[in-house]
Amino acid sequence: MQIPQFDIAFTHATLLTANAAQPELRDATIAIADGRIAWIGQTLPEHAQCKRVVDASGKVITPGFVNVHTHSILTMVRGVAADLGFAPSYTPGIPKGTQVTPEQARVLARLGALEALMFGSTLIGDNFVCADATTEAMAELGMRLTPSWRIHDVDFGKVTEGRWEYSADIGHTLLQAGLDLADRWQSHPLVDVQLAAHAVDTCSDDFLREIAAISSERGLRVNTHLGQSKVEVERVLARTGKSSTEVLDSVGLLNDRLLCGHCIYVGDEDIVRLANAGAHVVHIPKCNATSGRLAPIHRLKQAGANIALATDTQHGDMVELMRWALMTARVQQGGVNDDWQPHHVFHMATLGGAAAVGQADRIGSLETGKAADLVMFDFRKPHLTPHTNPLGTLVHTGQGRDVEMVLVNGEILVENGMPTRVDMGEVCAEAEQVCQSLWNNV
Ligand SMILES: [Zn+2]
């Protein structure tokens, strides 16, 4: 008889699995071997040997959250940019990506990624400048990444002055940087590089066509900002006579490898087009609401589009974000109904995200055989008591700060709420210094 061997087992846990066949298990055991979930049951199998057993009484274990659209470097404008305009890259008077050195980018990326990890994101889809430096810094934390270099052929320096001028030189330099990033990380088990066509207004039609051809040839996923602002919609309409969604379709980008961030300004025809193409909607409710807008998310959901969640430039707390997704949809719907319940937003934060990054077969739910990306919350707290309906409680009153442990691929990256690979105080102090120098030079 073969004796089951596990690296770590959690016993007496409440499991919120995100697996529709068995969404909740109480007083259960989940065990991990070789980076994978090897066992889920009420107790451990007979004669099992575990290197470590964690008594998870009073704890709730969920899949790791999949946060598909972040810009860790933009932690540099925290506390200011949210009150100025709709997106930092278009807003004058604040530090810009183009001013950040690779070393500063490394420090800021570590801050943003660490924050997301400590709040339970096991994958972030980070996109911005200096992606070679930031990907390295984020990978050091041990988390799963779908990084991308911000690619556009507009001269961003002139956009804040109201001029959209396209340069083949800018486009090709950035596209090459994006492809070099993909080459460099090709064989890394936790990193899957995407191409980031920044937005339809900041990429010319020809350039978008080129990105589409490369995406299809190399099977690389593409992320973009779609219908993010009225400025984008007006610029694109004036330039092409089409909506941004129509342009994406006409250049060959609208397919199931595309992740569309925001989707605020999309019309009924765009919604049908998006859903039919299998493109993924990246819902960013907190960031959108902060700038006074919301995506027509119910219509996108009704059309059958896969929906993932992302924190974008807001702080990386996916627990709080699930609440924003639920509450803003209810405000739009004018009440509580069966279409918007905690399990819907939990799905978006886990399996929906996993599907968007093309990894639903590997991550996004607690199922044997999947990677051991999981988050343990300590529910022995006043705001998380009673445990009548743990998912409802997590979505309505939980916080990223309630995360006690985070594992990615079976490795413990957060324990007792603190990172295991880096010194949190050092990460914050370094980032504080970088931000002060960037703000001093605005
Ligand atoms: Zn964004």
Your description of this structure?
With 442 residues, this protein is of the alpha/beta class. The protein folds into 2 domains: 115 residues, Urease, subunit C, domain 1 (Roll); 292 residues, TIM Barrel (Alpha-Beta Barrel). It has 14 helices and 18 strands. The strands form 2 sheets. Strands 1, 2, 3, 4, 5, 15, 16, 17 and 18 form a 9-stranded mixed β-sheet that branches. Helix 11 crosses helix 12 and helix 11 crosses helix 13. The model has no long low-confidence stretch (mean pLDDT 96). The site of zinc ion (ZN) has 5 residues, from loops.
Notable traits:
Urease, subunit C, domain 1, hydrolase, Metal_Hydrolase, MTA/SAH_deaminase, globular, nine-stranded parallel sheet, alpha/beta, binds zinc ion, 442 residues
Indicate the topology.
Elements: E1 5-16, E2 24-33, E3 36-41, E4 49-55, E5 59-63, E6 65-70, H1 102-118, E7 121-128, H2 131-139, E8 144-145, E9 148-151, H3 156-159, H4 168-184, E10 195-199, H5 205-218, E11 222-226, H6 230-240, H7 244-250, E12 258-262, H8 268-277, E13 280-283, H9 285-290, H10 297-302, E14 307-309, H11 318-333, H12 342-356, E15 374-378, H13 390-397, E16 403-408, E17 411-415, E18 418-419, H14 424-440
Parallel strand pairs: 1-4, 1-5, 6-7, 7-8, 7-9, 9-10, 10-11, 11-12, 12-13, 13-14
Antiparallel strand pairs: 1-2, 2-3, 5-15, 15-16, 16-17, 17-18
Helix pairs in contact: 1-2, 1-14, 11-12, 11-13, 12-13
Residues 69, 71, 225, 261, 312 line the site of zinc ion.
